[in-house]
Amino acid sequence: MTVEELQAQLAALGLRLPESDHQPLLGMIAEIERAAAQVRHGLEMSDEMGVIFATDRLNGGAS
Amino acid sequence: MTSQILTIAEASRLIRDRKLSPVELTRDCLARIAKLDGRLHSFILLLADEALAQARQAEAEIAAGRWRGPLHGIPFGLKDIVAYKGHPTTAHSALLEGRVSPEDAFVTARLRESGVVFLGKLATWEFAVGGPSHDLPWPPARNPWNTEHDPAGSSSGSAAAVAAGLCLGALGTDTGGSVRSPASLCGIAGHKPTYGLVSRRGVLPLSFSLDHVGPMCWTTEDCALVLKAIAGHDPLDIASARTPMKDPVAGLGGGLKGVRIGVIRNFHEKDFPATTEVVAAFDQSIAVLKGLGASVRDVSLSPLQAFQSAGLLISRSDAFAIHGKTLRESPHLYGAIGRRRILAGAFAGASDYVNAQRQRVKLTAEVANVMNDVDILVCPTSREAAPKLGDYAQHVGGNTHYCRPFNLTGQPALSVCNGFSNDGLPLSLQIAGRHFEDDLVLHVGDAYEKATAFREQRPKLVEQRQAAAE
Fold this sequence. Notes:
The complex is a heterodimer. Chain A is mostly helical. Chain A has three helices and no strands. Chain B is of the alpha/beta class. Chain B has a single domain (8-469), classed as Amidase signature (AS) domain (Amidase signature (AS) enzymes, Alpha-Beta Complex), CATH 3.90.1300. Chain B contains 16 helices and eleven strands. An eleven-stranded mixed β-sheet of chain B has the order 1-3-2-4-6-5-10-11-9-7-8, with helices on both faces. The radius of gyration of chain B is 20 Å and the shape is globular. Chain A binds chain B through residues 9, 13-18, 20-21, 24-25, 28-29, 31-36, 38-40, 42-43, 46, 48, 51-54, 57-63, and chain B through 195-196, 208-209, 238-243, 302, 305-306, 308-310, 312-313, 316, 327-328, 331, 336, 339-341, 343-349, 352, 354-362, 364, 410, 435.
């Protein structure tokens, strides 16, 4: 993602940030993207595509 | 004035037997705060007069035969995301500066009932996520073992204050290691309970399904005493578990005969290698555990990155869900690090979050399967000793990397000191167990501490002051 793309996305989200945030935020976004790719990879490699999504955790219930 | 820093267990016996006054003990802590906290910055709100009043009340109650239990009259600190009625809860942020909590958090109320003396509110990373920052209303806390070094976070003030004897116990919170990581780098015991065991009502949230409230004390025994006071079902916390906790104090003492320990090696030997000092201390810890009677075998889990990725996506998404509105309205009231870390969550897609939760289910099942054959898992808490305070960008993720798996799975996990680096900085061992077996985790940590001499050594900063006082 470029700084210009970031600025456009931030504007779309209604967020206004100082310029000094842009480069560090790009690094953190890259970290998010790597995590997302890793998680997708982990699930694609799995035979357990029928793993049930733990709605209790989404709703805050204890296991 | 007492000539040594007492643990909660030690002070409690003396107080119960009326050989030590809570007022004297509180004055001792306040004197130590006055002498040391100008360098440590662990307290952001000190309530000296109120604490002394509470100490006098405790003294009067005990004199009248109304001893409430082992925490009665014990000086204590609260991480400043935990509400304390009538006082600000700021999360170390300009956004909440001066905002007064109308009610106690559940855990605060429990501690109040136990007769604790509240010394004040402790430094934290901004909103428990922001990292050590110099652009906030208060400076970051520093490591008492070397004040040029990071105490880690986010429960930075809690760890620093306990290590330096400024309070005998503190509460922290742990979303991705924020009790255990500062406990590790400050050489104290820090326990992340089973998810749902301790209510989060009245604690500012960071991640709904990853947040835990836990005790931070000099010893595991003290953590058990505090956990016993604060755990329990809260019908007003939707995540609060109904499963009763086995008494973590009754289970202390004795060896580890019959305890089966699984040693996780891939985290620190392959996935995110630890320093040679950490590895050496860890291997020595295994020998101690064997000597106590435990049976030990190596186990292997999925790569650390799998846990880290899922945990990052969940926590950042939750954080942005919580802070999105205020970030749009008042981004300037956040520190730079906190603002950026939370904002990154805006860029995680909904399906990424769903997939992270699915991976979480898989990983939790995997660990549960491994624990069919072992009772306890061990690994280092941190990959290295405390880095210098300015090295945040390089080091901060690394020091929490061995912790996050147990936030994801919700298992209880404890950090205890297991040695010191060549530079005199603490090293640590992480001990994890099955859900709701916090008592066994604490039993193992307590046995380990009592079989080693690491609890006899306090930071030089503190020992120098004690020597001067004598």
